[in-house]
């Protein structure tokens, strides 16, 4: 029997005090492992070596850093669009599958989580190298006469990041599709709509919260991605996370690196708040329609 105060009068819903108590460890972890270090880092950008906004002025005035920020946004958007285009058919197939087929598809989506991002990125480096299987195949079928440069390019970064982040797009869309009652499709068929029209006018609008949620999740994750761009990209086409690491590890310019973190945090916050005004958070995660 539950202790007094843990349940509401109807005996089913937990009280507000119980919810806060259960959430306390999570909030403590967020504060001490994320908010506190982030606040300290951002304070460095405006307090060292003395109170100043000089480091943010460098970001705004130097066109090199503006190009890095623009490239980061461009790559994150491209990765998100490619992930959406590849994930939507997979999510639809998963939602319409049952039995062993559904188990197999789900395992294929969850399998990447069993290996680290570093391993998956290293695998792409092997595939894209000059003597890799992709170059060998291109030469074997006669498309190219000699190995082409695939590694250390923006294309390699986009392809590898899309592969790594696709599960984060598939799962929210799949959750939204699974919550759509099957009666809706039957009703559309009774009204004379074909499968394509049913999907376009019924299924897709109802799945839009999951699509938007997956898109935002992939986009925001891609903005701060480090391992894949660092291993597969070139110094001439670095992203913001690589630039921050360079300023910290090579130039030892922590205040300027903290300013870059501040700019990236501002961009992420603005994007998140903008979408939260339009879409309910629980629906973006594939909640019920």
Automatic annotation (TrEMBL):
Main location: membrane
CDD domains (alphabetical): TM_PBP2
One Pfam short name: BPD_transp_1
Keywords carried by this UniProt record: Cell membrane, Membrane, Transmembrane, Transmembrane helix, Transport
SUPFAM superfamilies: MetI-like (SSF161098)
Cell compartment(s), UniProt: Cell membrane
Parts of the chain that traverse the membrane: 20-39, 73-95, 102-127, 156-177, 206-227, 254-275
Recorded topology in the membrane: Multi-pass membrane protein
InterPro entries referenced in this protein's UniProt entry, alphabetically: MetI-like, MetI-like_sf
ABC transmembrane type-1 domain sequence ranges: 69-275
Family membership noted in the UniProt record: Belongs to the binding-protein-dependent transport system permease family. CysTW subfamily.
Name of the protein: ABC transporter permease
Organism per entry: Neoaquamicrobium sediminum
Species classification: Bacteria, Pseudomonadati, Pseudomonadota, Alphaproteobacteria, Hyphomicrobiales
